[in-house]
What we know:
There is one protein chain. By secondary structure, this protein is mainly beta. It has two helices and 26 strands. Strands 10, 11, 12, 13, 14 and 15 form a six-stranded antiparallel sheet that branches. The longest helix is centred in the C-terminal third of the chain and has 22 residues, at 422-443.
Amino acid sequence: MSSIYFIFFLSLCSCKPLPDSSLGLNEVAYHEEPSHVYLGSPSIVRLSSGRLLASHDFFGPGTKSYPQNVSVYSSDDDGVTWTFISYILRTYFTTLTVYNDRIYAIGIRGGKNDSGIVIHRSIDNGASWNYNQSDEGVLLFNGWFDSGAMPIVTANQMMYRTVEYHVGTGKWPYPFQAAIISCNLSSYSLSKNITADDPIMSLRNWKITPPLPFDTKWLPKTYPNLTAPGFLEGNIVVLQKTSSKNDDEQLRILNVLRFNSIPLSNLAIILELNQTLNTLSFISVIHFPGGMSKFTIRFDPITQIYITLCNPVTVEPVVDQRNILSLSYTNDLEHLNNWHIAADRLLYDDTGLTVNDSLRYTGFHYVDWQFDRLSSFDNKSSCSQWNCDGGPDMIYLVRTGYRGANSYHNSNRITYKTLPNYRAIIKQHQLMLKNRSVHKTVEV
């Protein structure tokens, strides 16, 4: 059993709300800036016990001589305080998910001989990550990959997650090539021996698509010459075919990717999975607020809308702006276009910095979030099923460069916040759009 740890990273103290902030952020983790150790890849889930689990990795020059481990924190008071409880060994860009009360963590492993995509599992509320007497996890696919803490989604008795092959060299993000990994859940049963025979931890149940490189031929001819165009950090998004009413076999599996589109911004790229051939193909480029930064999209079946928390670019030409976090949605169930910003300042810079310094030093980004029931907990964990009703509220975890960070990118904190009753916020925005449309019609 391995016992490699980040000794100097370990903090056993409970973290509490930030006292010098007006944003209502609860701090999960903090690292001092002079160390050149930065905190990234936040992921969050709620367990059926009510406990919250949050994870993050480390990056930066200060981490070069240390193993790549993910820190896991728990909160038993709805995110007010957080306590470090475990490491997930030799992984980064790692996402947490809960399936039948078992916690899985899928991420990327670096190494000379065993780099690739790795999965870990916990059956004790995140206290340990041991499977078949090993805490090293199971290497699903060998190779050189990149990613972020991207959402894990189940549909059609399959578990999906995006990754990117890292192929060759070239200017970032040119080497990234899109892919989807998927696990067949049809053999999964609660009666299985959870100690040694878990189908999700079995190589034979997983597959990966061939790599799909970015192609400039996809771009409209009206676009200017783009600086280092490419894509990364894709989202699994499930759409129902318009010809289908309630047939799981008629689901479309999309990969919606962050689009590095300098000097343009607020765009994303959509690929689609051919579920028979297990291949990806290009569908469209869409206008998407915050498409220059990592985002997570989820579907709310009650309102029939897709939702994201994003970093829209509002200060041109600063296309890497991340000092504002917004709530955005679309009710375009066919093309996933026509995104609206319902709340443009969920998080913003309250430090008093000038505009230019705020853009340089403040970032609320790489947000992972889940639907939740804050006021009426009913012993349900965060749901990975694409169309389950997760609740009327949201919980979110933020890679945060704030109050002391040496740049917005080099985040010194991981923070947590909630958004109660997001449906009311979106409904209010929809009514405003409707009234505006009526007003324009009357004027005509």
